[in-house]
Design a protein that fits this description.
Distance between the termini: 82 Å
Helix content: 55-70%
Structural class: mainly alpha
Number of helices: 6
Keywords: Membrane, Signal, Transmembrane, Transmembrane helix
Pfam families: PSI_8 (PF00796)
Protein name: Photosystem I reaction center subunit VIII
Oligomer: single chain
Length: 178
């Protein structure tokens, strides 16, 4: 149960808040110091000043003013600036580094990903296999049955070649010669 003292305190606070919400009567309002108030005079004059303003509408001669500025701006200036910026951008060394392999910035980003332990072996052809030795053994057996007569290519050499093509740091990943 709530204490009656808290209830009484809440009621007093509510009454005080309600007292502040009402405007005092004429007998309690303070008397003005002077009869002229410039703020009131300015606020009374504003509606009269708005009657002097012209209506907001487009007139016959306004279209030519806008066309004289906007047509050259949109057909000459903006396209020239955009094409100039594109030309300057395309002559940079790393202009289209996301689509051109071998750029400096693309190599830096690839090396940064290779430093992370989860992505270090992502270009390894045997990455993700549960038992890569069993895969190599089955691949060797299948190659021995299917290889042409006189071929000197071995599975381990081919795997090394594939790993080296995918990433020049293939030697640090794992030893494929074992």
């Amino acid at each position: 149960m709530a204490r009656p003292g808290r209830l009484l305190l809440a009621a007093a606070a509510l009454l005080f808040a309600l007292r502040c919400c009402f405007v005092p009567g004429p007998s309690e309002s303070p008397k003005p110091k002077s009869d002229f108030n410039p703020a009131v005079a300015a606020s009374a004059a504003l509606p009269a000043l708005t009657m002097l303003a012209q209506d907001a509408e487009a007139k016959y001669g306004d279209q030519r003013k806008f066309a004289a500025v906007l047509v050259p701006l949109t057909t000459l200036v903006f396209p020239a600036v955009a094409m100039g910026m594109f030309v300057l951008y395309s002559f940079q060394e790393d202009a289209f580094w996301r689509v051109v392999p071998g750029t400096r910035r693309a190599k830096e980003l690839e090396d940064a990903w290779r430093e992370h332990p989860l992505f270090a072996n992502s270009k390894d052809p045997l990455d993700g296999l549960i038992n890569p030795d069993d895969y190599e053994k089955g691949l060797e057996e299948a190659w021995e049955r299917a290889k042409p007569a006189g071929s000197t290519v071995t599975v381990k050499d081919k795997l090394k070649q594939m790993a080296k093509q995918n990433n020049p740091h293939w030697e640090s990943w794992r030893s494929l010669s074992a």
